[in-house]
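Lecture notes, continued. The same structure-token format from the folding unit now serves as the input rather than the output. Read the line below as a description of shape only.
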């Protein structure tokens, strides 16, 4: 009951009617970034914007910080490999497209921005949301692994 109430109070309203679209978009781990963002109101992030735009990937290395899965700051401080290596244009373009897609969804669902304004340009606030979301996408991408289970139900693999 407590879990359901927590979901209803946070991310559920930004996902419930769009689960199929999010799934069909093949977001993979990036869906976790969307969930991380919508787990708290935008005001939570905007009030602490410096912490979320200037994360500390060495958190826990030289001090007593311990990763806690329920702590959004622990997630924020995961390794993202920013500035490492040469990202190819197709990869960067895909990330940009996904961020814009998710920003449009967040605006439509009244998570952030003026929903009466149908202007397609990103204002300053949406740009900041996009920066935090992109960072979360990188944290999710580099720090998660898909787990799949194949269950054999027939005598032969061809029968499954």
């Amino acid at each position: 009951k407590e879990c359901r109430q927590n979901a209803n109070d946070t991310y559920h309203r930004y996902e419930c009617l769009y689960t199929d679209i999010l799934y069909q978009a093949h977001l993979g781990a990036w869906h976790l970034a969307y969930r991380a963002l919508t787990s708290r109101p935008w005001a939570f992030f905007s009030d602490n914007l410096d912490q979320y735009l200037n994360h500390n990937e060495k958190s826990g290395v030289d001090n007593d910080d311990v990763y806690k899965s329920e702590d959004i700051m622990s997630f924020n401080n995961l390794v993202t490999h920013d500035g490492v290596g040469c990202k190819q244009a197709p990869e960067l373009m895909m990330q940009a497209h996904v961020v814009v897609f998710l920003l449009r969804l967040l605006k439509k669902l009244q998570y952030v921005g003026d929903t009466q304004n149908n202007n397609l340009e990103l204002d300053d606030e949406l740009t900041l949301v996009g920066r935090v979301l992109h960072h979360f996408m990188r944290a999710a991408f580099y720090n998660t692994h898909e787990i799949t289970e194949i269950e054999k139900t027939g005598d032969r693999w061809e029968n499954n």
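Point for the exam: The mean pLDDT is 84.
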